[in-house]
Amino acid sequence: MGRLIGGDPSLLRRINAAVVLRELRGAREPLTLSDLARSTGLSRPTVEGIVEGLVDAGLAAESAGAVGDTRRQGRPARRYRFRAEAGHLLGVEVGPHRVSAVLSDLAGRRLGTADRAASEHTGAEERLELVGETTGELLDRSEVARSTLRAVGVGTPGIVRDDGSVRLCTALPGWTGLPLGERLRRRFRCPVLVENDANSAVVAERWQGVAAGCDDVVMVLAGLSPGAGSLIGGRLHRGFGGAAGEIGALHLLGREAFPERLLSTTGEPLHPLDEAAVAEVFALARAGDDLAGKAMERFIQRLVHDVAALVLALDPELVVVGGWAAGLDGVLGPLREELARYCLRPPRVALSMLGDAAVATGALRLALDHVEEQLFRVEGR
Amino acid sequence: MGRLIGGDPSLLRRINAAVVLRELRGAREPLTLSDLARSTGLSRPTVEGIVEGLVDAGLAAESAGAVGDTRRQGRPARRYRFRAEAGHLLGVEVGPHRVSAVLSDLAGRRLGTADRAASEHTGAEERLELVGETTGELLDRSEVARSTLRAVGVGTPGIVRDDGSVRLCTALPGWTGLPLGERLRRRFRCPVLVENDANSAVVAERWQGVAAGCDDVVMVLAGLSPGAGSLIGGRLHRGFGGAAGEIGALHLLGREAFPERLLSTTGEPLHPLDEAAVAEVFALARAGDDLAGKAMERFIQRLVHDVAALVLALDPELVVVGGWAAGLDGVLGPLREELARYCLRPPRVALSMLGDAAVATGALRLALDHVEEQLFRVEGR
Predict the structure, then answer these.
(1) Distance CA B212, CA B207 (A)
(2) Which CATH class is domain B87-202+359-375?
(3) Over the stretch A223-234, which tens digit does the pLDDT of each residue have?
(4) Would the CB atoms of A313 and B310 count as touching at under 8 Å?
(5) Which of A372, B61, B63, B76 makes a 20 to 30 Å CA pair with A137?
(6) Contacts of B237 in chain A (CB under 8 A)
(7) Which of A2, A256, A309 sits opposite B313 (nearest CB)?
(8) In the predicted model, is pLDDT for residue A258 greater than 60?
(9) Quick check: A251 and A258 in contact, CB under 8 A?
(10) CA-closest candidate to residue A369, choices A109, A151, A145
(11) What is the pLDDT at residue A273?
């Protein structure tokens, strides 16, 4: 059902090739041409021609090991598998305090990770260099040639334009206005997908984390400058100008203190983005320090406020809390209580499962989506 | 392009009939069979058969007045038009203080309106009676038979389930749990679409108001219990449980006063839902009363807070302010200032164009959508 009418034989060939390739990729074990003809409804000669083409393109290979009953006839039928190793993808997080990267094959299997520390003062060029070093090291260590990269996904703070340039970013010096996608495309010589970090994180939690199976999800990356990413009907909600979920200013609306003040135990505000100081406050609080405990309470209260505002606006099925807060004991209790109090229909609330890896993992998923769209997309299906 | 392959001739007939009907409805003047054959690409005999069927069904009629050159041949070609009068639709607002209704034909042309006052204490049965009285009067006055109703749209405060029952409504006594859609379906004997009032209002502003041409819109119905409706990519965003935009509790998050308190000039809170008292405060403020002016300032500040939270979460292209605030002089100025201050990408802000009529008009549009879906929908187009 739903195939296109039309007289374009090359389109039809492409569609059929995508169908066969998808079958090969989805199969648990290598398939014979007969298997493929049966499951796709295509004729055996058509399947044979397509598989030859896929083998030539390096996307399919004859399986080395024979599977199943090989003795039924003199010679076993040839079996084919998807060559996930035919291409590779990178997911990269560019954050205020580190650059991290994850490498996978075309099946999304993770081949390795790497990261480098940065500081909130690291300039744009230096930060781009760190991206090059981190990914270069990862490729070398994994013995993967840069030329096999099919796509790179990048998660970054700030508002990102469709072309991958940074519209506005207050967290990274020199980042606003940077043609990030273009710069990295030149480096990697393949498609580069740039996405807001919280948006990447919510994609990751749905792929491999706590939001699996959920289509309506809000994820909050808690920090001194918190951000949120939302899935609506299973799709990223970026907003009209890519600024959806940029909730850093919610704190200010109530005319109350900034998080730097809320978390301070000295009366002096913490330095913005000084996560080490924050970690210290959290550690002190856990150790029973009274002032630090009170500071943490104020911070959690603020987080609850942010999350509640998002929930009232969007009514998601699930709220995922990540960023610093993923490491906070006892953030879920107050959050659930307050949401039950203020929301007419309170959502489920869960901590991030992927933690530190969420942004890079989501960026990898976006790169994979892009490649799968090219390889497997069949119009009308 | 995009027609379905398939062996179902009745489906094909239905598709072709929808195509012809849509052409007739969209035409500025009556069309000949040749006109229709040309614009639809169908054969003339096919068009003729379809038009006969549409005439039998009452959806098309031969046009009385001859149009264009009638002397070219002995007899002018017959011309046909869409019979918008073949069916009627109602849009109904059920609010705390009134029930209002608007009547249209199948082309969405407004034939009349009616309303009845209610109070916030009016019980559910009595309020349903008011719906019957208001719409009965409107139909009688417009000389439209109830049997010609094709669909009724209803906008109501609260969270509405897909089946048209009220999941939760704090504004109308006895409304929570009411099978509103079913009760009205029995009364009107046609499909009844029930929708949250703010959701209806944003649909209306896009149809005939200030949001025409905008796909990403947040509309705030300001009141003692404010609500919001959002369009994302041109579609209503209802949320996972239908509670998106139920921002009544945003006020509470900052631990600040309720609107009843914010608007009070006596130190005693206003009665919840007492809009007369609110109108008086607004009038006093406009007359230069100092206390009332301060009360209004507090109220506007709160409204700005609510809107900013929605904007940060959703990043719409346009914010429409309706409800009471649509009558507030000077609400737009502070709103724009604050949004520019807090939002990384501030949206456009406008007052509702439809004012009091927004909810009923949006409900009418939803009813019209339903009927058009049935009459004109062609799969794959």
Answers:
(1) 6
(2) alpha beta
(3) 767 789 999 999
(4) yes
(5) A372
(6) 232, 314
(7) A309
(8) no
(9) yes
(10) A151
(11) 54
